[in-house]
Amino acid sequence: MASAKFTRRFREASDEAPKEPDKERAIVVVIDDDPRMRSALEFTLRRDYDVRLYASAQEGIAAMTEMVSLVILDIRMPGIDGLTAYLKIKALFPKVPIIFYTAFQDILEKQDLLSTHKAFGYFDKNGDVSGLIAAVEKAVQHHSLVSSMASAQRLVRGIMPPDAS
Hints:
Pfam families: Response_reg
Mean pLDDT: 82
Low-confidence stretches: 17-22
Shape: globular
Strand order of the largest sheet: 2-1-3-4-5
Distance between the termini: 67 Å
Strand content: 15-25%
Order of helices and strands: HEHEHEHEHEH
GO biological process, one term: phosphorelay signal transduction system
InterPro entries: Bact_response_regulator, CheY-like_superfamily, Sig_transdc_resp-reg_receiver
Structural class: alpha/beta
Protein name: Sorangium cellulosum 'So ce 56' complete genome
Number of helices: 6
Keywords: Phosphoprotein
Number of domains: 1
């Protein structure tokens, strides 16, 4: 079974307890209808991130805030599917990176999600766990940089006089 293999790989990849909350950790939202996948991702990421789990797209979208650094999103879920959730999240929070994480590989779907919709990543649940972890780190760093730049721009606008020309 794919999820047993997945869980075993994640346990091998991250066997440490969560870090002490000595600094503010990036918030990673996981939206997946499979409870085993949610648990495995939480187990793997909790050492470095504040992981928040949601069983449906509706719950995940409702819980979104500007503080979220990354969304890991399943594509095929009952109710609102992952693509629809992606569009709703991006409409509300255009700067948050979203990584699709699915058990159903489709080359055309992957190409479309990465090029047309500008998803930050697309990973197979049965694939390379280290690749997903690296993408999570990169996405969180990207979000931090984009947020810092936006803050700096707001600060500069606040102290610079309007252009007289």
